[in-house]
Design a protein that fits this description.
There is one protein chain. With 211 residues, the chain is of the alpha+beta class. The protein has three domains: 2-49, no CATH class; 67-139, Reverse transcriptase/Diguanylate cyclase domain (Alpha-Beta Plaits); 154-210, no CATH class. It is 37% helix and 18% strand. It contains seven helices and ten strands. The chain has helices at residues 20-36, 69-76, 84-95, 104-113, 125-139, 180-184, 192-202; strands spanning 2-4, 7-10, 13-16, 52-55, 58-61, 64-67, 154-157, 166-169, 173-176, 208-210. It has a four-stranded mixed sheet with strand order 8-7-9-10, with no helix packed on it. Strands 1-2-3 form a three-stranded antiparallel sheet, with helices on one face. Strands 4-5-6 form a three-stranded antiparallel sheet. β5 and β6 (64-67) form a beta hairpin. α2 packs antiparallel against α5, α3 (84-95) runs antiparallel to α4 (104-113) and α4 (104-113) runs antiparallel to α5 (125-139). The longest helix has 17 residues, at 20-36. It is globular, with a radius of gyration of 21 Å. The two termini are 29 Å apart.
Length: 211
């Protein structure tokens, strides 16, 4: 979640800023917010002015977000699954880095089919190819560069039950083929999960368009 512009947190982990120029200003804002709600920090567990850092299983530096060598090694050294439970565990570890793996869902589909109810476990060539692909792909995973906020963005979403990916381009707008989304964004009579989505999207003040 976003603590303030330029800072994000997950449970007790907080990451502030990506450049020295704005670091102290943003850090002051974050620390003040902690003080406002009565939170106390254990300073020995915090690091300041680091050029690179491990954060939520990723390695972050000025170039962008990288996979963590330790986590990649777990996937790379994972033995050939002998049960559906082994497949589920492997996909959980590989799926943590799905943002680095193009077409993750389609490539994983042979393995995910082994997890379907009443499916007998039979390991075939198609499963081995999918398994080996993930091992190789994570070893050669790209760096996820930071977005350039001097540009505006378009987010294109698909309402298909099978396709859940989001495409971001540096042009203006939010396009969706789901007719209900523009209506939901009006914020009328929302509750639960829809309210949380509405508040998250509202931070970016988007223009929604149905296509």
């Amino acid at each position: 979640m976003t603590v303030s512009p330029g800072a994000m947190s997950c449970v007790f982990d907080v990451l502030v800023s990506k450049d020295v120029e704005s670091h102290f200003t943003k850090l002051s804002i974050v620390l003040q917010r902690f003080a406002d709600v009565g939170l106390k920090l254990n300073l020995p567990k915090y690091s300041f002015l680091k050029s690179s850092i491990q954060f939520l299983g990723h390695f972050v530096d000025k170039h962008g977000i990288h996979t963590n060598d330790g986590e990649v090694k777990v996937v790379r050294d994972f033995p050939t699954p002998r049960s559906a439970e082994h497949v589920r565990f492997f996909l959980g570890r590989a799926g943590y880095y799905r943002a680095f793996l193009k077409n993750f869902v389609s490539i994983a589909s042979p393995l995910t089919r082994l997890l379907m109810k009443d499916t007998s476990f039979q390991w075939c060539d198609i499963h081995q190819k999918s398994f080996d692909f993930f091992k190789l792909a994570l070893t050669e995973a790209p760096v996820l560069v930071f977005p350039d906020y001097s540009f505006s963005f378009t987010i294109c979403t698909d309402a298909s039950g099978d396709i859940r990916d989001v495409l971001m381009q540096q042009v203006d707008g939010f396009y969706t083929d789901h007719t209900a989304v523009p209506q939901l964004y009006k914020g009328n009579n929302l509750s639960g999960r829809l309210t949380r989505w509405f508040l998250t999207i509202e931070e970016f003040n988007p223009t929604l368009k149905h296509i």
